[in-house]
Amino acid sequence: xxxxxxRDARASTVRSADGTVVAYHSVGHGPGFAVVGGLLSEGSDYxxxxxxxxxxxxxxxxxxxxxxxxxxxxxxxGLDAPSPERFSTxxx
Length: 92
Prior knowledge:
This protein is 16% helix and 23% strand. By secondary structure, it is of the alpha+beta class.
C-alpha cells in the first residue's frame, strides 16, 4: 500500500541526467502527466489528486531530492529543482 492508501499507485525510481535517484509514484494509463508538489510537501501527498486525474493520463508524482526514496540534495540543486531533465526521465 502506498503512503496515502491508494493501492493501484506504482512506486518506481529512475536516475536523472545529473545522477540523482528520483522516486515517484504512477497511477493510470495514457499520455504522461507529472504533478509536482510544493517545496515543503512530499510527492505522495498528491496521490489523491493523481488518482482523480488518472482517467485519461498516466500521472507521475515525483518526490523532491532529499525526500523518501530520492537521492540527497546536492549543492547545485535549488528552488528551481527538479529540473526539466528529471521530468523527461520520468515521462519518457
